[in-house]
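Q: My hope is that you can spare some time for a protein that puzzles me. Underneath my words sits a plain record pairing an amino acid chain with its backbone structure tokens. Those tokens are not coordinates but codes from a learned vocabulary of shapes. Thank you; the sequence and its tokens follow:
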Amino acid sequence: MTTATLSHASSGQFLATVRQLFATWFSARTPIPARPLTRFEEAEQLRAMANDLLSSDPAFAQDLYAAADRHELA
């Protein structure tokens, strides 16, 4: 089994990159709603993103599905 660890500095850069990726993806994919989204709608957007990534990165897609479920049920 292979284990990868990130140093504190590189993990901060990674998180910033992931946040930018999500922001870009959501802004390009979703029009600005006239009202705030419900938890269900936000979770559905995340599931749509996971669907797009399923073939290229199934493990990450599964993480997104789980995050969507947690957000919807919170």
Q: What stands out?
A: The CA atoms of residues 13 and 19 lie 10 Å apart. The radius of gyration is 14 Å.
